[in-house]
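Interim report, section 4.2 (structural modelling).
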Amino acid sequence: MQNLSPHFPALIIIVPLIAALLISAAGWLNRRFCFPLAALGLFTSLLVSVGLLSSVLVKDVILYRLGGWPAPWGILYRIDRLNGLVLVVIFFVAFLNLIANKRTVEESFPEQLGGFYALYVLFVTGLSGMVATGDAFNLYVLLEISSLTGYALIGIGHERAPLAGLNYLFVGTIGASLYLLGIGFLYLMTGSLNMTDIGSLLPGLYNNPVVVLAFLLCMTGLFIKMALFPLHAWLPNAYSFSPAASIGVIAPLTTKVMIYVMIRITFDVFTPEFSFKMMHLGQVMVWLSVAAIIMGSLFALAQTRLKRMLTYVIIAEVGYMVGGFWLGNRMAVTGAVLHILNDAVMTLCIFLAAGAVIYQICGDDFEDFKGLFRKMPISMAAFTVAALSLIGVPPTCGFFSKWYLISGGIAAGHYGFVVALLFSSLVNAVLFFRIIEIGYFEPFPEGGHGEHHSPPAMEIREAPAGMLVCLLLAAVSLIVLGLYTGDIVTRIIDLAIPPAI
Amino acid sequence: MNTILSIKPLLAVLASLLAVPGIILSRSPDAREGWTFAAALAKFGIVVSMIPMVLNGVRLEYTLAEVLPGLGITFRVDAFGMLFAVVASSLWIVTSAYSIGYMRGLHEHSQTRYFCFFALALSATLGVAFAGNLFTLYLFYEALSFATYPLVTHHQDREARSSGRKYLFYILGGSIAFVLPAMLVAYHSTGTLDFTPQGFMGGIESKPTLLVLLLLFVFGFAKAGIMPMHSWLPAAMVAPTPVSALLHAVAVVKVGAFCVVRIITGVFGTDLMAAFHFDTLICVIASVTILTSSLIALTQDELKRRLAFSTIGQLSYIILGVALLSQAGMTGGMLHIAMHAFGKITLFFCAGAIFVATGIKHISGMVGIGRRMPVTMGAFFLGSLSVIGLPPAGGFISKWHLVLGTVQAHQFAMLVVLLISSLLNAAYFLPVVYRAFFCTPEEAMFDNRVAEAPIWCLAPLVVTAVASVILFFYPQPFLRLAELAVQALTGGG
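Predicted structure of the assembly:
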């Protein structure tokens, strides 16, 4: 390993890429090898990403020139604390979800194992590449890789999934094209595609309308891809009709990586000075996020199916991060970055729990949750932990990112954002306790009000062991992340945010 | 005052948490209850072992993790926290015994879950008692809300569900919508959340801001049952009686009152309260609650609901006493946490024992019951004396200090409130006792087949009734702690 460690930034893309090729080959030859290959590929990448994170904690920044071409001509991979952290999250989530959903994939797509796993690993490759790269155009390429595989992972499902996937493809392509257009304008102005290089060339051109237009195009493209209200309409259908194994990786990661990209572009390609101060976008963006949080919460209240409800919760959570980021003060930006990490794990946990329930009872209507605390006590316990984290109850990690976001709102004097966050916490409490109530109380004991009647006995029918272990791991990590918030913030996030803020 | 690092507060909190796996995995009910008792005794032992140090003016401190910069999950044992911890952990032992009698006597379902969440709730309670800063307090306050939810809704029927909703609505709504933003604003403006005898809000100059924060805290800690945030408490009486007894007369509601007292003494500080005349405001809020709830209690026929409204009033005694800011008033308020706990838990135990023996919940159906269950109703009488504040019961001591405190603070209106309330207390308790013992044979509703509840139910209520009498003659442990706490706050001694 030691002699490979300089190549870690490349390995993080190459390992899953090769794994994906081998998986599709295995899909032709012997399907039994597909899953182990995928697991091995992602696990290796997880280890590599952990190695990278631990070395950037010491070295600050690792630069890697793909193929040895010097920047700004060649493609540069640039790992710092910020994306080192995000990379670990990506592979952690992807690996855990892969293991948890082994059974569902085998049962849903027995004939397409090779295809599914290859798409899955390619999707993760695209995401991690977007995070690792220091090249604005390379980012677009990897964005397309992850998007195209994402459309396929959604469309592979049954019933309305293909249509929802197609719809997502149309909207997603528009978003990606807008981003590409923005990068094209920047290339026109600076002649460079390397992020840091553009960043150093741009300051003289900030008053140029083309640069402003480029900034707005990039941002709009990213807002579409991250489903920021009111550009969110593609998300609920695409997510709620997709198969469990796909949604378990797409929902926690796609929106979060897009938010990372937004942060990267505003900080590195442009400067915080330009993005926050010269563009006068802060107020607009924060109010837009307030709308996202409130509308997402309200839409979620109107749903009667778990997965669909969760999709609206995601839309609200996007508002948390975008709003926190555009508040532009240190507290709030810390909160936004911390929430990328926390929300990814929370979303993973809640979708794994939902997946376990859906796998066992074949439905996600709220009514299907009757008596579930008796049937599936462990899954429901994990579900409750994830719910508490989404509500924001200490010591789960959801509380701490909310703490920073609200503090940021107070520091900026933006009480609309504070109220929106509190409102969303309360709505989340209603959303999840409505389900927990059904699972805990119903079906009601015979005879109503008496003191001695116990609810009807039910036998325990827990989800398969693989699913349970991953689910519990995710639930425990919610609490562990919460308790280590102090370390994560002071050792990683605080140093990852430019000191100018 | 010197501070030493000690892991004991953490152990006291963890004792019952560590018993949870044992409770879940036990093969037989007896083994399971064995775990509960072991945890309860261990917890009490650890708490008691810290008393001598606290009495000597030593503060024990332990930081579990620094989760936010400059802000950790910190335990700090002072005299006031100690007082509450002793009350909660000693009564848990008694309640565990009572739970066994009650739950087995009624063949309740899901007893494992019941004992498991009971242990969790006690962990959270001690966490609140030993919390060294507002953040830790909030953390355990929330943990307690969730740990008690399955207890409140134990019966899992429609009534339990609607009560559970109400419970969460008030408690969680209060803490998320009121306390959380107030805490964040406080942290943002002052940079700390550590409780100090002088409070830490001195840096905030503007009176309106301080006033809003204070009100957010006082009403946000809805467990204190200050009107209009009280109506979860009568609803929560659908819980099994041991739960109502320990959690809704002792742990949960006292946690609420404890939090409000901490806000007044540790966050705002007595000087600040007095400087802005917030003390009178809180006194008025508390006395409105005292009088209204006592009047409502008069109209309740269901015994547990009457007790619930009585509790709402008595909680505000604590807050009123501390808000008087006089030496005796604060001592009385803090002491009332202990005295009221022993009295009220006896009354709840009695209500449960009557229910186990006869299945009756309503006062109108209890005529003549004293003849069939003399021990229970005798204990009920002692418990009522304590809550009313008459000798020879412990409640007299705390009420004496409270009355003294109003005189010291020259708050004669509050003196009148206390006296009227005592009369009302007598009016809603004593008729119950009277009708239970004195009636013509024709009126008596019970025949020879009715007898006392099982020994597991009976023994605990006798113990607590006797304890509340003993506390009248020997209030020193609690009185000493309360005096120490007040000394630390006022800087005297």
